[in-house]
Amino acid sequence: MPLTLVLTVGLSGCAGWGGGPAGGGPDTINVLMVNNPQMVDLQQLTAEHFTAETGITVNYTVLPENDVRDKISQEFSSQAGQYDVATLSNFEIPIYARSEWIAPLDEYVEADTEFDQDDVLGPLTASLSGDDGRLYGEPFYGESSFLMYRADVLEAAGIEMPANPTWQEVADIAAEVDGVEPGMAGICLRGQPGWGQVFAPLTTVVNTFGGTWFTEDWEPQVDSEEFRTAVQFYVDLVREHGEVGAPQAGFTECLNNVVQGNAAMWYDATSAAGSLEAEDSPVRGLMGYAPAPVVETDSSGWLYAWSWSIQQASAKKDAAWEFISWASSSEYEELVGEELGWSRVPAGKRASTYENPDYLAEASAFAEPTLQAIQTADPNDAGVQPRPAPGIQFIGIPEFPDLATQVSQDVSSAIAGQMTVDDALQRGQQVAEDVAERYRERESG
């Protein structure tokens, strides 16, 4: 799951913090969105640019990730039409499309010749489409996952990172560089409970080890040999060569560990590279970037995109599309680069971004590995066997967040040494069986 920071910011007069929409006339739309840094930048630029050019005022309701997910679910399931646009990810969009909570965008895309849908990276377009093949979301930014490592530390140790590392090669390197500098762990991996914490990277490890949460026929596989082997490998690696406090470590903790020189490697979101290469980062220019490690699959990086969707009940779909077209455009990226700096561009969604010399001058160290990771991510073929629903670091069903969160509690306990992996996954199998039984009943009925 992507980096989401809880920020306290001063908002412009057109924005609301929490609460409900501020209302407005026919030239006003209400947008419900997550409060990450890229969205905060968007707020700052809206009135002076989008509203000035179109005459459309935007009322923002901005909430932290968990809160915004709950509120969007409540608002869109009721179809009250109070919010015209919301930030959804490629996890929710196919599910919401199936429920007819969001509007298809194909006609708007076809009519908007300047938007250039073909420039949007193919895996993102596919992941934001519904079962009916129609498009239901446009990405604001996208990400995959890759291996970040201290190139200088490996070089000093006489170690060369393979061009396409396997997980065993990564584990061997972690053992060699563990403690090579005072306080430096061999690797940092998320261990914090949560479907979007430990199971974001760990599900990709399960995939490439040959495991899956469910077979195509809804047989749960949480206690299968492949799933168990992957989790045992991950738990052993982080226990033996991982960071201090691993059971409580999430994205932010690993980012801090790498920046502070307390970890030689880190497998996580491609979006993290911008922070590692920021002007004030102590590790700027010292990092290397390699594809997500594999075992049985050719690639294993995840796919995630915070994206825009229009509520089906919105009475202002045309204005809503004008906003989406602007916020997801290459022109908006240029605006951010010129006014706020190229390191703050919401990248990872358009091929043209990776041909922009201004962006590449800022992101040369990680731009190509990021693009390659996104382009090789396939949510419809994430492992070695067919799955009942799309997804790489998740399974695209409404029950997955609760299922994976429950199982993650025990996996985190295994990382802490309070439970065996076998016991953790036996308990997880029971939870998965409850989910699978409901789907088998639906399909047989």
UniProtKB/TrEMBL annotation:
Pfam families, A to Z: SBP_bac_1
InterPro entries per record: Bact_solute-bd_prot1, SBP
Family matches, as CDD domains: PBP2_TMBP_like
Entries under PANTHER family matching the protein: ARABINOSE-BINDING PROTEIN-RELATED, DIACETYLCHITOBIOSE BINDING PROTEIN DASA
Protein name: Sugar ABC transporter substrate-binding protein
